[in-house]
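re: ur msg from earlier - yeah i can do the sodium ion complex, just paste it... oh wait u already did. ok heres what im feeding in:
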Amino acid sequence: MAVTINTLREYKQKGEAFSALTSYDATFAQVVSEAGVDVILIGDSLGMVLQGHDSTLPVTMDQMIYHVSSVAKGNRGSLIMADMPFMTYGTTEAALENAAELMRAGAHMVKLEGTDWMTDTISALSERGVPVCAHLGLTPQFVNKFGGYKVQGRDEHAAEMMIEHACELEAAGADVLLLECVPAPLAARITQAVKAPVIGIGAGADTDGQVLVVHDMLGITTGRKPRFVKDFLADTGSVQQAVEAYVKAVRDRSFPAEEHTFKA
Ligand code: KIV
Ligand code: NA
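and the outut:
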């Protein structure tokens, strides 16, 4: 049976961890989906992973549409989440138009990076039938404001703000939250504070779900390997088995381990 937002809500209610991975093409989408990954993310990380840029900012709507439609063809029942690229949701009007294009290409949900400024836009999308994932913490589209890729929410004020923003975004209509590179105790507090399923990357083992960039979990990271990445291909014989091992490790919460986690 196909995964829907209801499936993710049921996982949260039952306390069962669910998995997500990026895919950018039909072949990976099929492998990932058939291995039992619940959510496929067409991340704007493709700007770095596929295109070789040093940030996600250059990714365009046309490129996202191309990759979403490829993934949709390979998908075998996972929920397809598509990133809205940098500045394509700067106004609510732009967000509605651009989200519609991603949905027409085959997405079931769109993901936006930001904080409380997104509430009106998220309400507008939600009211018109577009499920939204709100991405908080290390939001890579803000790299130039952050001055680098840094763990977020480390001091108590920043942590309180992130909890507040998570609650506001949920109240505005966000169906899923995603936390990137935040201390595990903060991610646990946010996961408890909201009813919406929370997906983490570099956010510890207590979020409702986990996500990784598929290249990273296959050990083909170029450059410095982030702390939260684990190579699942190293101990398995094939891409298929590596993805299955990831699904299992997320489900039994053996991934992420302490070594993949930011404590504070
Ligand atoms: O673009 C992406 O792949 C992402 C994940 C890392 C969460 O946003
Ligand atoms: Na992204």
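cool cool. The chain has a mean pLDDT of 97. ping me if u need the other ligands too
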